[in-house]
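Contributing new complexes? Match this layout with iron/sulfur cluster.
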Amino acid sequence: MKYLTEYRNAGVVHEYLDELHRTTTRPWTIMEICGGQTHSLVKNGILDLLPKVITMVHGPGCPVCVTPLGIINEAIYLAENEGGILCSFGDMLRVPGSKKSLLEAKAKGADVRILYSPLEAVKLAQEHPERQVVFFAVGFETTAPANALSVVQAKLLGVKNYSILASHVLVPPAMEAILSDPENVIDAFLAAGHVCTIMGTEEYFPVVEKYQVPIVITGFEPVDLLQGILMAVRQLEKGEAKLENQYARVVQREGNLLAQQTIGKVFEVADRDWRGIGTIPMSGYEVNESYAEFDARRRFNLHLQAVAENKECIAGTIMKGLQKPFDCPNFGTKCTPEHPLGAPMVSSEGACAAYFHFARAAAT
Ligand code: SF4
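Output block (do not edit by hand):
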């Protein structure tokens, strides 16, 4: 299969590993931003094959993990109290809110549905004009175009009973928040290839400039990740800080202009709370004035409440690269995928779930 099997080729993987071992002379800490990259690194056993002095830490690029408790509580409120239909991607259902998860609300009778696209939710709204249909619009820049498009389409079709509960987050401000933290340990980043497919590469130049940190836009297959790590290490060993694009077969400098226009039509950039990390200025999307009628917060007069996190969960320090899942005293004991204390144990992109499913055997 073109562009897939060749990026999983064991011979090529070993060539990159050999080169990495020859190139690395000092300890470096590199953060892969995206949870999909984390899962690929752990699932393919790459962390164990790297030079011992390279520490990979796992960033906040798991949308389910960074959705704050207050927004999950809002979704549960809408599912239970407005007599409507709350639609969501499947991962969100099992994430614990303050008192329960959406799955528990569903078990108690709330109409919560798992969909694969927000456009399905618009169709659902057309089929049930007597009910309010809300799509829980969670994600990074990657899911924002489809969520925005659903709103544009609902407006075009005159669908009055559709709205979105937006919880969108943006990668570059999160990188800046991590780099600005006095405890920062990150020497280089692997940026998320799919985010850059939408947004392009321009917005990362200021981060490289300001913090003198190498950023390599990287894909998700084993060869992608090893090539991305090697490109970052080569820069670090030479004392350079540049933006490089390992994922050039997909990512173009300008990104997907149509997707960006759709985002710009519906959303505006605003401050956003990140679960476990706190408020990051101008790090999320909210529905703008032109499409205010499709904003569930305005339609149902919701006022986001700040809610204290579960103190037993160290997800925030993991997502800042300061700790790893195995450092959590609850990992695999009080916190498992069946009974999660925190979102990273639930999500298919969460670092704790990756370690639970793929790294425990190696560690024991
Ligand atoms: S193992 Fe569970 S409690 Fe610990 S950091 Fe991960 S999600 Fe939170």
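Reviewers usually confirm one structural detail per submission. For this one: The first helix runs from residue 10 to 23.
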